[in-house]
Amino acid sequence: MFGLRTFTRVARELRQDLTAAQERDPAARDIGRWEILLTYPGVHALLTHRVAHALHAAGVPVMPRALAYFARMATNIEIHPAAEIGKALFIDHGTGVVIGETSEIGDNVTLYQGVTLGGTGFARGKRHPTVESDVVVGSGAKLLGAIRVGHCSKIGANTVVIHDVPPNSTVVGNPGHPVRVSGRKPEGPDADWAHLPDPVADAIRALSARIRDLEQELEQATGRKPQQTAEVRPLRGAGQDPAGG
Ligand SMILES: CC(C)(COP(=O)(O)OP(=O)(O)OC[C@H]1O[C@@H](n2cnc3c(N)ncnc32)[C@H](O)[C@@H]1OP(=O)(O)O)[C@@H](O)C(=O)NCCC(=O)NCCS
To answer: Which pLDDT does position 226 carry in this prediction?
Structure first.
C-alpha cells in the first residue's frame, strides 16, 4: 500500500520538482529550496498530486480526489489523480492549469499558466494528450485529445493543438501547426502558419485604396484638393511579427 517505498519515491520526486523550479524559473535563481517549497503553487500542486497518484494506484477510494480538490482550491491547478507525470515537471505560475485523467507527461516538461491537457468530447478511455520529455508548453495553450507531442518540442503561448506534434518542433497558432521542425521552417504552399491572412485588415486595405483612387479622380475633375479629415496610415502588412501582436 502506501509504505516506506512509496514515501521514499514521493520524497525523491519532490526533490526533483524543486530542482526543476530552481533551474527553469529565472526568478528563482537567488532563492533557496525552502522558499520555493513554501511559496510555489506549482510545487504544491505537484507534491499533492504525487501523493494522490500513489493513493490512486494503491486503490484507496475518495482520498485521491479529495487531495486533488484541495490542491485545486489552494493553487488553482487541477491535476487528475490518475494522470501519469514523469520526473521534474515545472508548472510556472500555475493558475488555470488543467491536466486530465489520461494525460501522460514525460520528464523535464515545463507548463506555464493556463495550459490545458484536455479531452475533446465525452468518449471514455485514452482521451488526453501524451507529452514526451523536455517539452515546453506556453501560457494559455490547449492540447486536446489523445495526441502525442514529440520530445523537445515547444508549443507557443495560446496555441490550440489538436494533432500530433513531431519531435523537436515549434508549434503555434489555432489550430496549431509546426513553424519549425528541427530548427528548419517547413516548406510547401500551406506551411506558413505563423502568418495567417487577416481578412478584416485586407478588406480595410482594399477600401482605403478605393477611397484614395476616388479622391485622385475627384481632384483631377474639379481641381479641388480633398479635405483631410483624419490621417490615413498604411496598415502593417501580413508577415511582420504576428507574435508581437
Ligand atoms: C513558441 C515559442 C516557444 C518560441 O519558440 P522558438 O522555437 O524560439 O520560435 P521563434 O521565436 O523562432 O518563432 C517561430 C515563429 O513563430 C512565431 N511565434 C512565436 N510564438 C508565437 C505564438 N505564441 N503565437 C503565434 N506565433 C508565434 C514567431 O513570430 C516566429 O515567426 P517567424 O517565422 O516569422 O520568425 C515562444 O514564442 C512562446 O510562445 N513561448 C511561450 C512562453 C510563455 O508562455 N511564457 C509565459 C511566461 S509567464
So the answer is: 76
What separation in Å is there between the alpha carbon of 241 and the centre of ligand 1?
Answer: 10
State whether the beta carbon of 194 lies less than 6 angstroms from ligand 1. yes
Cα–Cα distance, 41 to 38 (Å, whole number)? 9
Handedness of CA 128, 123, 52, 79 (dihedral sign): positive
Percentage of the chain surpassing pLDDT 90?
Answer: 73
Choose one of 179, 196, 198 to mutate for the ligand 1 pocket test, by most ligand atoms within 8 angstroms of C-beta. 179
243 lines ligand 1 (CB under 6 A): yes
174 CA distance to ligand 1 middle (Å): 13
pLDDT at 231: 65
DSSP-assigned states of every residue in 127-142: -S-EE-TT-EE-TT-E
Q: CATH for 4-195, among 1.10.1760.20, 3.30.559.10, 1.10.560.10, 2.160.10.10?
A: 2.160.10.10
Are 153 and 161 a contacting pair, CB within 8 Å?
no
16 lines ligand 1 (CB under 6 A): no
Output the CA 172–ligand 1 centroid distance in Å.
7
Per-residue pLDDT band for 199 (boundaries 50, 70, 90) equals confident
Q: What is the mean pLDDT of the chain?
A: 90
